[in-house]
Amino acid sequence: MIDLLNIEKYKENNQIEAKKATGGLPESIWETYSAFANTSGGIILLGVEEYPDKSLHPVDLPEPEWLVMDFWDNIENPSKVSLNILNEKDVTIHNINGSHIIVIDVPEALPKQKPIYIGDNIISGTYRRDGDGNYRCNFGEILDMLNSK
């Protein structure tokens, strides 16, 4: 877990992704979920923006409880994501100096659960994390995950 009170010391990397999310749940959250689950896990921060110097800063989410409910509704939808590997303790709301943020702690999926993919197409919906970005897996990478079960 990161030190949320000193969040500005962190940058996006292979295990941290920040999303402002003040307009609602960003669609790109599902690519990040897939990527973290298919690699080494990671933390998605909602209500956190990246400044030009790459430092992270909280912005106040107006209705964090509603965003959490929306997240749970979507992650349980098989047309949105192939499998929910999270439990209640993995999604938490925090107050950082008066700003509400949501922390989603995505573990690495078990080999038998991989690949975790978005939508209904394993080929176009499987992602991996590399550095601070999410990348669509190629067919060989997907086969490697399927064969490691």
General description of the model:
The mean pLDDT is 96. The chain contains 4 helices and 8 strands, in the order βαβββαββαββα. Helix content is 23%, strand content 25%. The chain is globular. The chain has helices at residues 29-38, 64-75, 122-125, 139-147; strands spanning 16-19, 42-46, 48-50, 56-58, 91-96, 99-106, 127-130, 133-136. It is of the alpha+beta class. It has a single domain (4-147), classed as 2-Layer Sandwich (Methyltransferase, Cobalt-precorrin-4 Transmethylase, Domain 2). A 4-stranded mixed beta sheet has the order 1-2-6-5. It has a two-stranded antiparallel sheet with strand order 3-4.
Layout of SSEs?
Blueprint: E1 16-19, H1 29-38, E2 42-46, E3 48-50, E4 56-58, H2 64-75, E5 91-96, E6 99-106, H3 122-125, E7 127-130, E8 133-136, H4 139-147
Parallel strand pairs: 1-2
Antiparallel strand pairs: 2-6, 3-4, 5-6, 7-8
Spatial sequence of strands, sheet with the most strands: 1-2-6-5
Please tally the helical runs, counting DSSP H or I stretches of 4 or more residues.
Answer: 4
Mean pLDDT: 96
Terminal CA distance reads 28 Å
CATH-defined superfamily: Schlafen, AAA domain
Q: Care to give the gist of this entry?
A:
This protein has 149 residues and is of the alpha+beta class. Helices cover 23% and strands 25% of the residues. The model has no long low-confidence stretch (mean pLDDT 96).
